[in-house]
Every structure is written in structure tokens, then in C-alpha cells.
Predict the structure.
Amino acid sequence: MRTHYKLEGTPNSPVLIFSNSLGSNYHMWDDLVPLLLPYFQVLRYDTRGHGHSAVTQGEYSIRLLAEDVIQLADDLGIEKFAFCGLSMGGLIGQYLGIHHANRLNHLVLSNTGAKIGDHARWTERAERIAAVGTQGMTDEFLQRWFSDDFLEKEIHKIEKLKKMIAQSPDAGYISSCAAIRDADFRHDLEKISVPTLVITGDEDPVTNVEQAEFLADQIPNSHLYVMMGTKHLCATERPVEYVCRLIDFIVGTSVEERGMHIRRTVLGAEHVDKANAKKNAFNSDFQEFITDYAWGEIWSRPGLSKSQRSYITLAMLIALNRKDEFKMHVKAAFNNGLRKEEIKEIIMHASIYCGLPAANEAIHSAEEVFSLLGK
């Protein structure tokens, strides 16, 4: 099965997989990605029958769609991941939580239910799509997905969403209706052992707050967050609020927790553990200052990627001739996705603006790190 996907972020960061709703594709998550990249590798994919993924024939099942996720993760060498699915994606998430808990570290079930609608509803929906196509139902979808305020003010985003709907393959939509029609996890939710966050909009007409409360009540290690003033695609409507809840849930609510998370992904867990092991009454305040402000406040900002921050940091450390810090950040640069050739070019460029002696020292320091890492 050909699955269309996009994987972004630095290789040492944990993976967060997003699964789209019926009739959309992975672009529904676009606005969230820049805010999440300081913390995660973000893997978005088009569900079978959606976007640019293969449209296979016959009725789909949630099991089939969930196994596509496992296959994609296997193909990319991803052993463990956090998973966030909305609506149909939330049904996929429930299946993964029940049958593949060993692959998950966190689960987010958004704007979904253990049982969504009934046989008649999805049969009628499939018949309408066959008659008028997804494009013929664009206005109805948008009214169901978004609040009136969003529809009125976010004209540019609405135009992009209309194009997304128009590009949704009718055959894939119809086949997916069968998957939602037949899915029923009401008696299996207690099997989900992974930490779970349930999110919904208070005005969601598709999967209402009552359905979200049922999920949170039945799943043992879970809690509920209701986004006020939103409907079905609350992640698309209010991405900043949505991302804050994801980070709170997966990483932690404090600046220290967020800073330590990023510090570990950039410098490596072994380095950070050694630094923490050396904490004492004299240096602990300084260590906490580094974690909170350098990593929790600056490296967490979405304006620059981690790789861009490595470029800047290496160049500045060459200029300042901070040998030990430079070597530490050469190691970090590999965690942030830089290649040996790129590090060489940073040093070459710095030789012009920082001086040949500083660049010469950097060359020797970098080679020491390369030898240590076997690069």
C-alpha cells in the first residue's frame, strides 16, 4: 500500500504521528507543525483513500487503516511513537491503543467516539458522496467542522480547506465510510493502558462532549480537555491552544520539563544525565537556569529549526573560541540533523569572519569529535 507521508524534525527527537479526519488529508495539521518541531519529529500521513495515498478498492476497516500506520512506522524504522488522531483518526488511535499498546508512549483521541453514528447514517453518507462527490458537500463539511466565527474571519484558510476537500478521492471517502460504520470500541476501551488525552470541541456536532466524556471515563489512564467555542476540526481552528495541550500532555507543563526534554534531544540523554549527576549546592541554580532559559525558553521557540540553531551556535562558539562548548555542540549538531560536510562549511565560512586561528582550532576540535563518534 502506497502511503503518502511527510516526516519533519531532528532525528534525536521522539516521533509524534498525526492521523487525519474523513475527507481531509495531512494538510489539516499544517499550522501545528512549526510549533511542535522543537519537541518532536512530526510524521503526518494521508490515510488510505485520502490525499495522495493509494485508493484501494473495496470497503475499508479501522483495523486495516491502523495496520497501515504500523506498516508505515516499520518502514521508517520507528519503534515507539505518540499518536494523535482526529475523528476517523481517533478511531484508528483507539485500535492502536487496544491492539498495539507496545508501540505507543502517548495517545491523543481528538473529536472522536468509541462508536460514531449508525449503519444508516454512513450508508446515506456514502450514497450522497457517490451522487455529488466530496466537492458537492464542501459547504456542509465546513459548517460541521468550524465555528461561524472561524468561517467568517479566516477566509484564506477556508479557501485552502476547500481545495483540500475538492482533492479528496470520492472512492476513498466511500470506502472509509464503511470503516467508521463498522467500528465499535465501546466494550474494549478499558484495554487501553497507554496514557491518553481526549480532546473535543464544546460545539462539535459530529462527536459531542458526551462521547468524549465516555472515552475519558472508560479509558483507565486518561483525561479530557474541552476546547470552548470550537466544532469538529478544533486542531485546525485553534492550533496554538491545541499544541499547548499536546505539549502539556506529552512533555510536561513546566518550563523545566519542556527545557529538559529539548536539552536531552539536542545534547543527548547521556550528556544531560552526567551534568545532572554533578549537580550540587553550588551549581544547581546554574544548571536549572540553563534548563529553564536556554532550553525551555530559547530553544523551544518555533522561529528557527533546531538545525538552524546549530548553525548559529557553532559559528558563535568559533568566534568566541569556546573549545569545550564547541565540541559539545558538534555532537549536538548531529542530533539536530547536520552532516559532517555542513559542519565543515560552517568552519570554512567562519574562517573569513572570525579569523583563521579560531577556525583552525575549530577544525581540530571537530575532528576530535568526529573520531570519538566514528564519523
